[in-house]
Write a structure and sequence with these properties.
Chain lengths: ~220, ~260
């Protein structure tokens, strides 16, 4: 029974890897989502085309395959990545493609009235986006961003493909060493749930903050 | 001889195959208060939107403050205006919309100070000082820190007027600014506009269905039908002794609907 402490430590180490992947992957996804989402509605056809290509590609292929390519094929072109970097990149680019559509949808959901008011007070395109459109689009994005972050958390377990010891990987290790399935998998079940709850909770707080004052508008 | 501040020459505008304005000509003198009236769909809103550069033109020419609005000089030739030119020209013009179009995420004060600070580089102190003066003028001095969602329609529209005035344009466009309001809120907005007309030398173009107001407000009334001016003149003349049959029948309908003319 004394061994459980050691096994639990193993799983918690894996949990930390999962947290790191989730945080860094989400950060990358967020950046990529804004770049590609804005790219989708650019005035320049070639930027729209580029953004669409990225989004379609990463939504249309599985993250498993994407990770494989990033970790095993990309190095052949000279871009050597650590497993953690490859994992973050695959997760970020994959979820960022979904996020881009959210960004685009939210921006387009801001009424045309608002764009026209901006023209009437002579804001530049950038000022319109920065001061009027984005602040109204952001609250529309947040609920779906929360879901995306949870999807990303759940997808982190693919990194065992490239021998990263995340939480699921460690649970497998413990299982094969102890022969017990129940203990490791109940543990990671609770840990995954705790992490996704933390994301939901954080997102709801953020939502309340950015929607302050907007109530009664829509 | 004074130059007109707005000069519209042979203006044409189509939406796809639908021609809305077809060969329109008129001038507006500096400081003039103009009312545009006419049946629904006659192109009144479209004209204001074109002047505000919210809608492009299909042909013809517009000059504002002596400069072409939709054209510019490039290498000695006249070419279609680019965004930078439009941006420069928009400084002369402000607009108040039927549905207010306030920024819902900004307070009343921020709604008014945003553009002066961004487009004219005004300091917050200067911008806020004038914003408060303008709020005082429209009777909303105590509402500076409210959010738009906490205001009535009439109050929103008065904030929208203050927002447009804060940029100190030479020309103001008003598109049916009271028609989205409950009847009991109309008067407070009209009151503000009457004061504005009396106290400033701003050029004002007003689209309205309120004939009584057009009469009090305007120096000249243009009656539109199908994208053309059918008849124009001082309100006393146009409302009491219209010459054209279409003007007469339009006014008859308005009176039948119970409006004072
Ligand atoms: N974006 C658009 N696309 C297509 N048709 C349009 C567009 N905007 C206006 N129209 C058409 O142009 C015509 C003139 O419209 P406009 O809004 O200028 O009329 P109006 O005189 O302001 O009418 P109302 O008194 O009802 O406001 C109408 O037939 C309208 O349907
Ligand atoms: Mg109209």
């Amino acid at each position: 029974m004394g061994d459980w402490a050691g096994y639990l430590t193993l799983i918690l180490q894996g949990a930390w890897v999962t947290v790191e992947l989730t945080l860094m992957g989400s950060a990358l996804a967020l950046v990529v989502a804004f770049i590609a989402g804005l790219g989708r509605i650019s005035r320049h056809a070639w930027i729209r085309w580029l953004a669409t290509g990225y989004i379609e590609f990463f939504r249309g292929t599985s993250i498993f395959v994407q990770l494989f390519w990033i970790y095993f094929v990309l190095p052949m072109t000279g871009a050597e990545l650590t497993p953690m970097q490859a994992g973050v990149m695959a997760l970020g680019l994959n979820v960022g493609a979904y996020g881009a559509e959210v960004v685009r949808g939210a921006i387009l959901a801001v009424p045309r009235d608002q764009h026209e008011a901006c023209v009437a007070v002579n804001l530049t395109r950038f000022q319109r986006m920065r001061h009027v459109i984005m602040p109204q689009a952001l609250p529309l994005m947040l609920p779906t961003f929360g879901n995306n972050a949870i999807e990303l958390l759940k997808a982190t377990s693919v990194v065992s493909l490239i021998s990263l010891s995340d939480m699921t990987f460690q649970a497998q290790v413990v299982r094969s060493q102890t022969g017990s399935t129940l203990m490791p998998f109940v543990t990671i079940l609770l840990l995954y749930f705790a992490m996704s709850s933390a994301i939901s909770f954080g997102m709801r707080r953020l939502e309340r903050r950015v929607t302050r004052g907007l109530d009664g508008v829509r | 001889m004074d130059q007109p501040i707005i000069r519209i020459q042979d203006l044409r505008k189509s939406f796809g195959t639908l021609t809305v304005i077809d060969g329109l000509n008129f001038d507006v003198m500096k400081g003039e208060k103009l009312a545009l009236i006419g049946p629904s769909g006659s192109g009144k809103t479209t004209i204001l939107r074109i002047l505000m550069t919210l809608e492009g033109i299909s042909g013809g020419r517009i000059e504002v403050c002596g400069e072409p609005l939709y054209h510019m000089q490039k290498h000695g030739a006249e070419v279609p205006a680019d965004e930078a030119h439009l941006h420069r020209m928009r400084r002369h013009i402000g607009m108040v919309f039927q549905h207010f179009n306030l920024f819902p995420h900004k307070s009343v004060l921020q709604n008014i100070t945003l553009a002066p600070m961004l487009t004219k580089g005004e300091s917050r102190t200067v911008a806020e000082k004038r914003a408060r003066e303008l709020l005082d003028m429209v009777g909303l001095a105590d509402k500076a820190d409210y959010m738009p969602s906490q205001l009535s329609g009439g109050q929103k529209q008065r904030v929208a007027i203050a927002r447009a005035l804060a940029l100190q344009p030479q020309i103001m466009l008003f598109d049916e600014v009271t028609s989205a309001l409950d009847p009991e809120l109309v008067e407070e907005v009209l009151e503000v506009m009457k004061r504005l007309a009396a106290e400033t030398d701003m050029t004002m173009l007003l689209v309205t269905h309120e004939m009584g107001f057009a009469r009090d407000f305007a120096d000249r009334v243009l009656f539109f039908d199908k994208g053309r001016i059918v008849e124009q003149g001082p309100p006393a003349q146009l409302f009491t002794a219209p010459q054209e049959d279409r003007t007469k029948s339009f006014l008859r309908k308005i009176i039948a609907a119970g409006q004072r003319v």
